[in-house]
# Entry
Amino acid sequence: MNFYLPIAEISINIYLLISLGIGIGFISGLFGIGGGFITSPLLILVGIPPAVAVGTTTVQVFASTSTGVMSHFQKKNIDYQISFTMIVGGIFGTLTGVLLLSSLKNIGLIDNYLNAIYIILLLGTAMFILYETAKINLIYKNKKFKLHQHSWIHGLPIKIKYRKSKLYISILAPLSIGYLIGMLTGLTGIGGGFILIPCMIYILGMKTISVIGSSLLNITVVALISLFLQIYINQNIDFVLAIFLIISSSIGAAIASRIIDKFDQENLKVLFGVLLVIIASFLIYDLFRTPLELFRINYV
# Structure
């Protein structure tokens, strides 16, 4: 049974679409991620135009993170000072990303460039997860563990106090991180939590208790800004597709929440890293395979 997506301008099997949403939700719930950075590549692999995949994923990211923000708001786990600093950087980064996406779309290079970016992000994240898992296991065996060390970041100028996180660091650090995450959100549609959280812990030196809530607030606000910019500049959001994904991914996340306690967390990290490598492999194949149609002539 095929279903027509008006903005994507393609027909897609509704059962495939629902299964994809449930799978994304299940993976997100099982591994504790927002799922944005696997949603866009998977949508592209099933035939959704890259620009539409990016814009529509932004809607899902906003929907999935906004509920989490409310929970952490009630628990008072958000460092608003550092979050708003990153949001300022994220606003400029998002605008840069959306304009860059528009440029790639106009010159006809969006497919190859986005595939290459997703491959780099997925493989980079997979290697980081597998490396950190192996390193932490080795450190615990030797009974030595230090979460954070000072680096060149702490030598940057324009330092201010972030009282809740008990940090005295340069404002340039969270601004730069916010800009990077915002640019990724505008260009690829991902929320960037898988990059933002390690940056907040290992670069800024934030305490874990404030990291999740602060990260979710940043991603939610930046995703909302990106959503409006995508509508205004690129007109690439298919809300019909987004609604299907949001509803079906909620079902998948609910299923994952019922069985997650049966899995060992360290094994899950390794499994997640392997899953990212598999998705990246499909994208590599899609990037280098010979097209079915080498030439196409359109008549107007």
